[in-house]
Amino acid sequence: MRKPSDTMRGHRAGAALAALLAGALTLTACSGGDGKKEADEGGGGATGSTVTLPKLNGTELEVAAVWTGTEQANFKKVLAEFEKRTGAKVTFVPAQDPIINFLGSKIAGGQPPDVALLPQPGAIKQAVEKKWAKPLGPDAVKELSKNYSQGWQDIGKVDGKPYGVYYKAANKSLIWYNAPVFENAGAKEPKTWAELLTAAQAVYDSGVTPFSVGGADGWTLTDWFENVYLSQAGPEKYDQLAKHEIKWTDPSVKQALTTLAQIWGKKDYVAGGADGALQTEFPASVTQTFTGGDQPKAAMVYEGDFAQVNIGETKAKVGADAKVFPFPSVGSTAPVVSGGDAAVILKDSKGAQALATFLASPDAATVQAKLGGYLSPNKNVPDSAYPNETQRTIAKALIKSGDDFRFDMSDQAPQAFGGTPGKGEWKDLQDFLKNPKDVAGAQARLEKDAAAAYGNGG
């Protein structure tokens, strides 16, 4: 697999992307509404292009992913479009985290799905090592080369061979906030960590808890850490920690955890306190921020662009009631962390290859983009496909970043450390949320679990 340092090249480019996001998101947040003008002027790529697919009448396929709720429902509409074009019948198979374990049980039972959406590059590598994954065929590779930057192509490769189509991306460096609460508190969108703490105090003084944290899902906590660490320690250290070339007992980790504790350990700054946060799953962490008008359970919630799916389940309108700002700079530069889900073929057939080809095309991504709460790394998805200005801004910023991004650190780790509920980094950061004063203990547990999962001592 392409190493993080190979595909994630620029701190300066990351700074430029953060600046672009900061300016553009401020504009869109102030303007409100959906705005047709920007959609019409968008330069997101070719429109009207279609991918050629074979006729697959009588073919039955299964696609597995961990997606639930609206996200699953929207993806099923993409599969319905594939069915319409090919005549195939596609069944969505709900998977559980960690998906590698889920797939292992299906394969052991002789019933693997044809295609699986894997949320970690580490999982793609494991699927290849276990000889489950099949290489992408020439048609899918052709779509990839036409529609994706080299970085997004490379992150789906193992030993230089393409296995993954990154159908879905995420900008994981965003904080969503309840606009009426900020207005009542006189709080302003922060650009630095110090300004974030100032805004939080203003919100707290107005009578609203500053932050909602979905601590029941450990991955939200790893995302918090990664943004603080990337901005504070810098990209070189980030890449080293991602590969466990430095230990989690490193002083840079201590500094990041100590910084996180300024929020996680501040009395009454987290909705429900630590115990409440650890019982709050991610969807609820979003909806409780935008339910209750200007008296919600919390004023802000950190997470990626996909939080819009959950905001859509409330009465809040993105760009008006629900606004967003880039994750503030903790060090000299604001962080830009990306994530994503890649389609990987497990049963090499004409139908499975055709589905991977379709998912690599702008046609598939455009279907889901129009439904909201989705971001594609496909550079030929037209900007006009995204349903509001905020989403268009985030999408354009992702495409303009090209190869200059940092991929989610925990997603690069072995799943035993970075992607398993109740274990590894997820559990260690949940324990730290419960006791943010124990920085040294958290570091020791993280290092012990990382060393075991990576199979080295750092």
TrEMBL record:
The keyword Transport applies. Pfam families: SBP_bac_8. The keyword Amino-acid biosynthesis does not apply. Keywords: Signal, Transport. InterPro entries: Bact_solute-bd_prot1 (IPR050490), SBP (IPR006059). Residues 1-29 form the signal peptide. PROSITE patterns: PROKAR_LIPOPROTEIN (PS51257). Coiled coil: none annotated. Belongs to the bacterial solute-binding protein 1 family. This is Carbohydrate ABC transporter substrate-binding protein. It comes from Streptomyces seoulensis. The lineage of its organism: Bacteria, Bacillati, Actinomycetota, Actinomycetes, Kitasatosporales.
